[in-house]
Amino acid sequence: MLITEEQDGLLTIDAYAKLNFTLRVIKRYADGYHELESLVQTIDLADTIELRVAQSPNERSSGPLIEINNEFAVPQHNDLAYKVAQAVLAAKESDAAVKINIKKRIPIGAGLGGGSSDGAAVLLGIDRLIGPRLTSDELLAIAAGLGSDLPLFLFGGLMLIRGRGEKVTRLPPLFAQTILLVVPPFSCDTTRVYQRYDEQTAIKSSLFDRSPYATPGRGSHNDLETAALNLYPQLAPYRETVAKLGSDLYGMSGSGATFYAVFSSCRQAKRAAEQVKDDLPRAMTFLCRPVVTGLKFTRGVLL
């Protein structure tokens, strides 16, 4: 049973972004997808998801009804959150009417996993609003079937991700770091970046044998970075600026376009953000901290 402050059946969730501290492509499958090995951290930059199930007969329909407001005018049937809602309602054999409102703060097409995080929030939110509750394995199967990044948001924190994203190993959390995100005013197409990688690079063997914090000031390893820079040469000034900030670690997240710099000092991170604003006035900047979950329920108490 769900109890909220105003008894209106509204559930609100913060859906966190993620960063890839490292990303290695192990092999390409016959279906075009890739086996990956990546060190991933969720951070406190978040979208807000509001979920409500129809409370009165007038709101119900003769079959499942999903209504989504995603703020970007994305056709509903193309929205990952819509596909997740369809899948979880089907798994529960439910004809409930669900209303979903997505308030975006995570930039789109930026390698931060915003769409997948929103999908994971919808998955867990509907599971808690509508019985019977699914098992962890059932939730993971739904997530893995709909996107490579979806499963990691069911865990969160610092994780080692393998396979197509379905193999998640949680690692000891990070607390002291402040992370500066530098987001260009354009996005990178994930499919095109992987295609360019396949064209350019022989697939590497698995090599994941060093901590990303082993050497202060070094760049992280991301197999997709060269392909992204080749496709989007306008990324180069962003990478060059971030590389000169004096951080403990810097790199590109996912398939781009976000670059990040990790600092042990919050004051140093703030100074770096001001430098970026001077050097790259069109860039968006965010100062973030690591979090230990993939999402957070902010309204609605489950009994």
Polypeptide structure, described:
The chain has 303 residues and is of the alpha+beta class. It has 2 domains: 2-172, 2-Layer Sandwich (Ribosomal Protein S5, domain 2), CATH 3.30.230.10; 178-288, Alpha-Beta Plaits (2-Layer Sandwich). It has 7 helices and 14 strands. The protein has helices at 80-91, 114-129, 136-146, 190-200, 225-231, 236-243, 266-279, and strands at 2-3, 10-28, 34-53, 65-69, 97-103, 158-163, 167-171, 178-183, 218-219, 249-252, 259-263, 284-288, 295-299, 301-302. Strands 2, 3, 4, 5, 6, 7 and 13 form a 7-stranded mixed β-sheet that branches. Helix 1 (80-91) links the parallel strand 4 (65-69) and strand 5. Helix 1 (80-91) packs parallel to helix 2 (114-129), helix 1 (80-91) packs antiparallel against helix 3 (136-146) and helix 4 crosses helix 5. The longest helix is centred in the middle third of the chain and has 16 residues, at 114-129. The relative contact order is 0.21.
Properties at a glance:
26% helix; 7-stranded mixed sheet; 5-stranded mixed sheet; 31% strand; 303 residues; disordered N terminus; Alpha-Beta Plaits; single chain
Order of helices and strands: EEEEHEHHEEEHEHHEEHEEE
Count of discrete domains: 2
What is the C-level CATH assignment of the largest domain? Alpha Beta
Q: Output the structural class.
A: alpha+beta
Q: DSSP helix count? A: 7
Estimated helix fraction: 25-40%
| Global mean pLDDT | 87
Rg over CA atoms = 20 Å
What summary fits the major beta sheet? Answer: 7 strands, mixed
Outline type: globular
DSSP, total strands: 14
